[in-house]
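Q: I'm writing a short explainer about Luciferase-like monooxygenase for a general audience and would like to include a description of its predicted shape. Could you first generate the structure from this sequence?
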Amino acid sequence: MSSLCVSVLDLVGMKPGEAAGQAIARTVETAQHVEQLGYVRYWLAEHHSIAGLACSATSVLIGHVAQQTSTIRVGSGGVMLPNHAPLVVAEQFGTLASIYPNRIDLGLGRAPGSDQPTMRAMRRDVRTTGDDFPELVAEVQQYLGAPRPGQIVHAIPGEGTRVPITLLGSSGFSAQLAGQMGLPFAFAAHFAPQYAQQAMELYRSNFRPSEWLDKPYAMAGLPVLAADTEAQAKRLLTTPQQRFLSLVRNQAVELKPPVDSMDDLWNTGEREAVEARLALAVVGDAAAVQARLQRIADWLGLDEILAVTDTFEQADRLRSYEILADVAKGIAVREAVAA
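A: Of course. Here's the predicted structure. Afterward I'll give you a sentence or two in plain language.
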């Protein structure tokens, strides 16, 4: 029986008043650290016009991280495909795959990940519903595959690179599509945990073997905060709690120092909203993290997790990934079980 694979999803969080370059430098340090720990992949998100996140130019960040690492896979978690022309995505990731062979992943998402003014600024039709996502994915696949007879437009670099594609989602649409296309699926349980079980069931029930996979490969983004003691971990949790509180209030989502208690910072409604977002957070010492991750992995039938670890101090983040790498060796991959 195999062990649960562990990877990282990074939103490149910034501290108040911090230059983006400092946050990006932490990302590089983190990627180098988890590479040494044996993590499978390091994925970078795409967000636009959000104060506190430095992950708008995803493909640029991927190239930067790949250049300063050597073995870990680096990719997008994910490129929001409706924001981009499929040809441009294929060219960018084909170029990355040409520079860093067998190390680049292309995670594709259906949502724009931004508000209407930002969508207009990206020259995106704000009336688009995302219903054309299957056609857009197929177009990217075509550009990255072998040329077809009579094909006029080619992705160069890109053509023939067959960059591995994973579909990302926070609802059932992409889960069902990933199953039908025989692709890996990654669910955004780090901010939409309430839909996780339904999405994974849809993915498995719709799965059709393909040239990419002969059986489903299920991944999930999960908030993970591991520390040497339960008390330390619970205190570290207040940093992502403050981030989601800022999101609820439509404020900058910068990394804030942990606090002893959140009681004076939120009201009842805000607390419930934040706790709902973090319902699948994995928080605690090594034993608690291993036990909770095993339960979640069994429940959702996960093959791999993408750990989202937001801490104010970099040392706490690196330590959390060390603990996770150690305990993951004892987490078995099994078939999904009833909740």
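A: For your explainer, you could say: The mean pLDDT is 94.
Q: Perfect, that's easy to follow.
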